[in-house]
Specification:
Blueprint: H1 7-24, E1 48-50, E2 55-60, E3 69-74, E4 89-94, E5 98-102, E6 108-113, E7 116-121, E8 127-135, H2 136-143, E9 148-149, E10 160-165, E11 170-185, E12 188-196, E13 210-213, E14 219-226, E15 239-241, E16 247-248, E17 254-258, E18 266-267, E19 271-272
Parallel strand pairs: 2-9
Antiparallel strand pairs: 1-2, 1-5, 2-3, 3-8, 4-7, 5-6, 7-8, 10-11, 10-13, 11-12, 11-15, 12-17, 13-14, 14-17, 15-16, 18-19
Length: 285
Amino acid sequence: MSRALPKPLAAAAVAVLLGGASALAGAAPAGAATPAHAPAVTVNFAGTVALDDCSGSVVRLPNSQSGDPALVLTNGHCLESGMPDPGQVIVNQPSSRSFTLLDASGNGIGTLTASKVVYSTMTNTDVTLYQLPNSYADIQQQYGISPLTISPDHPVAGSSIEVVSGYWQATYSCSIDGFVYELHEGDWVWKDSVRYTPTCNTIGGTSGSPVIDTSTGLLVAVNNTGNENGETCTVDNPCEVDQNGNVTVHQGTNYAEETYLLDACFDPGNQLDLNLPNCTLPQPQ
């Protein structure tokens, strides 16, 4: 969970974001690389958002309609009320969280405000979905911004991806190195996590960034953590655990959580229904 910022640094960085977004727009951190081959789509910052200490994006499900209430995706550990405990699932919790909406160049063009937390957990995955009072059509009309579309399919190893941080207005280009049976960090366990190749060396503040497959333009995961100093299974130092319980540590490697599972848990109108037959997200206890 090292991809979120400590609060003092977060406050300073947001001041930079709101006061001089254009200075950082499109700037990639050292080590961010271009893909080995030209992507089929051009990835930019349109639809991404900056939170007070994390990144996120305005998202739609494959069957979402323009009049549906818009959703904002970030990490479970970016929840404003604090990180959910292992096993904890939060649904339909009132929220007035605000997000700075970015345009294609990474400039802040407006503020969106949540009406509720639709779903949040750090069990099996690391995700928070907010609902806005605005529809996708409202956002399009006011800001000219369309949402990112969540892929309904499992991501594919070897795919070229871009991690797009609205917080830093920075992108990271790499590929999906593979998938982790279980990723353990502190008391939390995430399943079937995405492992990046080395050039996606994400930093604090990139938590919640959308991970975009550059061949399709679809959102396939949400950036969430990395092993900072080689410790084993501690906070900020996740470890990989295979089906046989073998533990490996990859210092400097960063990870994301898949998002295709979300599609099976929503009815028309962006209405969460964890009882749908193909929904496998954890339910509240």
